[in-house]
Predict the structure of DUF7730 domain-containing protein.
Amino acid sequence: PDEPETEQKQQDGNLLMRLPPELRDKVYFYLFSSTRFMYGQRFVLDQKYTPLQFYTRVAYLGSEILRPPRHGLALLRSCRQVHLEIGSAWLEHVIFCFESPIAMLRRLDRVPLETRSLIRHVRIASDALQVPLSSPAEKKVIDGCFKLLLQMNLYTLTVFGPAIPCWSHEDLDLFIKYGRGWKELRYITYTSAFVDIISSNRGKTITLPSEPQPAAWQRDLENRDGPNSGASVTIYKSADSKNPLSVMCSTMRAELSYPPTPTTGVDHLNTDGISQSLDLKDDKRGILIVVKRGKNADWQ
């Protein structure tokens, strides 16, 4: 049979193609927005250990290699019309998840720049970003990651921070003061102690911050984007002490503020009007810091 005639018969029997184009676009959006392409090696941790002990081999039970779903792009192959309608738009909706910076480098460095610039959402586990930069190889990985980000136009960059709180604090300083390639940063940590401490020497010297957060980060961001640009830094804390990742759900978190005191600069934690004593011990309630670049900011 003639190819155009066969293709038309396939489309006539396709329920998706019977929908109006506007509804088909919504189907494409919801499908690809819920699709995750995962890469790298994920370590299985023994939950009886504290987060700080996750950096010792005794806490690891094993590991698994993550691979993208086999049929993640099956819709593109369903028929020629669907393929033409979607084109490369799926790159703007799917989330690319990497278990380490080196996994991101290995995967995205091989992707042509033209294609890479279409990606809009990336998640990365940042533990490897926090290791002491004691070797040229480690520095090369970090430099490569930031160069990749400079070449991207992300709407959201989600970073899962390490278990050592002071390292997260340093990373956020770098992202807020110098980060580019993203419009919105979502930084997540597995311990609430992160916001209460800061390190001046990669974990060796721990002191209370000299200024309350997020006010200091807000000032740094406004210095980049302008005071009236709408740039913002907001800190949220999970309401569930047993599930730190629940902080990603808007109904399971509360916004935090840190009012200064004459002695320490930071002494209490306000959560919906409730004052709590500062505690540097491990708190398994997760923290989410949302950094939004200002209007007309040069974030690309």
Notes: The two ends are 50 Å apart (CA to CA). The longest helix spans residues 136-150.
